[in-house]
Amino acid sequence: MAIGEALGRLEAVVHDRLAAGTVEASYVASLAAKGRGKIAQKFGEEAVETLIAAMSEDDPALIGEASDLIFHLTVLLAERGIAWADVAAEIDRRHGTSGHAEKASRS
Ligand SMILES: N=c1c2ncn([C@@H]3O[C@H](COP(=O)(O)OP(=O)(O)OP(=O)(O)O)[C@@H](O)[C@H]3O)c2ncn1[C@@H]1O[C@H](COP(=O)(O)O)[C@@H](O)[C@H]1O
What we know:
This protein has a single domain (about 5-105), classed as MazG-like (Helix Hairpins, Orthogonal Bundle), CATH 1.10.287.1080.
């Protein structure tokens, strides 16, 4: 599955859970109910777990931690009202810029 498709599907579900605000049985809603600081804290914890996994030779562990990290970043962005499309546009903008710089340095 393409990364954009996976992130888009996850983002849509996260938006639904934030809008519903029903804490029971929803990890996203219960995390959001604890506030922005808690979402950011969870993201930071997952970042540390990802870097620890990165230092091992355990690929499934790293994939799992990277998935947790991206999931929490999706919640963090959604709670701030920022869409993955906004991040994609910034990445594209930088890619275009560095591409030109690369071409210029080669000529
Ligand atoms: N992709 C995820 C996902 N990835 C990770 N997690 C949760 O993130 C938490 C990771 O935190 P930890 O590893 O620290 O585990 P923990 O001890 O349970 O966490 P805390 O008690 O410290 O909060 C776990 O509870 C995982 O279940 C996720 N929870 C939900 N989703 C998806 O998000 C969508 C909405 O989920 P709900 O809000 O639960 O309906 C669904 O599509 C889910 O598949």
